């Protein structure tokens, strides 16, 4: 180790070459979002603590146990964002995006989020998410669109083991009666004091409990799917029909509630069975009352958060074929002072033509420079010496096949562009 300092415990960091994959899958998502008409947001990393208390829910583990909260110099309570939806909605309302055009407002963002959790593989204190939201429409087609964007992204990465789990959590019309029924059932179970307190605040959260002892007792719990009102049932059926039309398969999962209080109606999760306990690689749902909860107007919405960290792990677990674009396609090997200056200009020309190019620095000899070329991952090396300059050529070597040919200097860029495009 070259320093006495280390990254804080539980922080996920990425360095080349793994960081190249991280960046590439983010860019692949950006393209999916662009194709569907979603604009990009760059947002605050910390917010007024009450935004998350009111938006995410006091009864959630996120708010009650996991937030990084601090007081600034003005005595204001601030919190590093533990999730994105509340922050995105706050920004949409603050900037009046819902008043500036047709609804829904369609936006996406990405970056780190923070939760004070026990670090383990796939669960970090600083982790990275892609977030996409469609705000201002109750149309089930919007629900299906968000699910399709995520599903298409996973497919574009070459992932084949992703499962879509789907449920409906009802609305403010049908949920109160179900809530009372569920509370009556839960109060009869042998649960610890903290879980009993949760029953009175948000009993649906108890269904999300992963402890085996609790799950055994939940086997006979009433399910929201059996108590949906006619409007919610129709909405859910239409979402499922639209997914079927798109050829997107799903598994009805009536116990799926996810970990946040704001979800209504459509709720879903993407699961990857090769990741063990941290198999949830993304998920989301509808949050039709969240705008009012944080002091805004009635404004329905739906969106998701996809875990970049767990997606990288899923790609590695599957050995998926998706690969980042090479950081170097052509590597320059100059031999001598005059060749260094000419190569520097040639590398700039290659880059201007859209070819990823690098070169050996520091006056290295042929053997050392060719080692650098091999380490760079480049497909071709361009070798340029004093005699080559006088002859007006450079030697182009295929680093995979080993074949080397002399190419006129004026033709280097078009020749390499043509070869790389094959």
List the helices and strands and how they pair.
Blueprint: H1 18-35, E1 39-40, E2 46-48, H2 49-55, H3 61-66, E3 69-71, E4 77-80, H4 85-94, E5 105-114, E6 126-135, H5 140-156, E7 163-168, H6 175-186, H7 193-201, H8 212-217, H9 230-245, E8 251-252, E9 264-271, E10 280-286, H10 290-293, E11 301-307, H11 308-318, E12 330-335, H12 337-352, E13 357-359, H13 366-376, E14 380-385, H14 386-391, E15 393-398, E16 404-408, H15 412-420
Parallel strand pairs: 1-5, 7-8, 12-13, 12-14
Antiparallel strand pairs: 2-4, 3-4, 5-6, 6-11, 7-9, 9-10, 10-11, 14-15, 15-16
Brief summary:
With 422 residues, the chain is of the alpha+beta class. Helices cover 37% and strands 21% of the residues. Homodimer.
Task: Please tell me the total number of domains.
Answer: 2
Instruction: Kindly report the spatial arrangement of strands forming the biggest sheet.
Output: 1-5-6-11-10-9-7-8
**Fraction of residues in H or I helices:** 25-40%
What global shape is seen?
elongated
Q: Give the low-confidence spans.
A: none
Instruction: Describe the largest sheet.
Output: 8 strands, mixed
Number of helices: 15
Q: In CATH, what is the homologous superfamily of the largest domain?
A: Bira Bifunctional Protein, Domain 2
Radius of gyration: 27 Å
Portion of residues in beta strands equals: 15-25%
| Number of E strands | 16
CATH topology of the largest domain: BirA Bifunctional Protein, domain 2
* CATH-level-2 architecture of the largest domain: 2-Layer Sandwich
Termini separation comes to: 42 Å
**CATH level 1 name of the largest domain:** Alpha Beta
Q: Give the helix/strand class.
A: alpha+beta
